[in-house]
Amino acid sequence: MGFEQLSELRDRLRAEKAKEQPAERKPHAPKPAGRKPQSQKPAREARTPEQEAAFEAIRRLQKHFPLAFPVNPAPKVPLKEGILKDAEQQLGVLGISVDQLKLGIAAWCQGSRYWASMKENAPRLDLNGQAVGVVTAPQALHAARQARRQRAQARRDKAPAKEKPADTAAAPEADSPQ
Q1: Please, what CATH class does the domain formed by 49-158 belong to?
Q2: What is the pTM (predicted TM-score) of this model?
Q3: What confidence tier does 173 reach under pLDDT thresholds 50, 70, 90?
């Protein structure tokens, strides 16, 4: 499912839940002491305002330009160099600000799905899905390096934190003469 379908589903489920809540106020059964629910997922971090702006921009780009901004699980496609200038001409249709558009396109082009699309000689597409250039060898190499860096960072973030030695220089000595 893409952003558009997910947001529609979310809105529909919220509306259904709002209808059911007043009619079905059932007391909750007490939870057994000392037991965790089996599917205890960590709480999802809240999005920052910038992430929300980028998310909304991407959703609108996908709605108006589906060939250039395909919905997941379809693979992303390399975009035309200078696509931002083309998209700026469409701000009235998109209904977003220039800053929001910049955030959206930057977020779209900074991920493993986009970098995977950047293969040498792959066609670059404009907003309408028309081929207007190709990915060069240096661009493909840069994308491969970016993907490797992202994977390495993800591995570092996933690895358990190593214990750091206590910093003795920062704390004053309690027994030192004055």
Answers
A1: mainly alpha
A2: 0.62
A3: very low
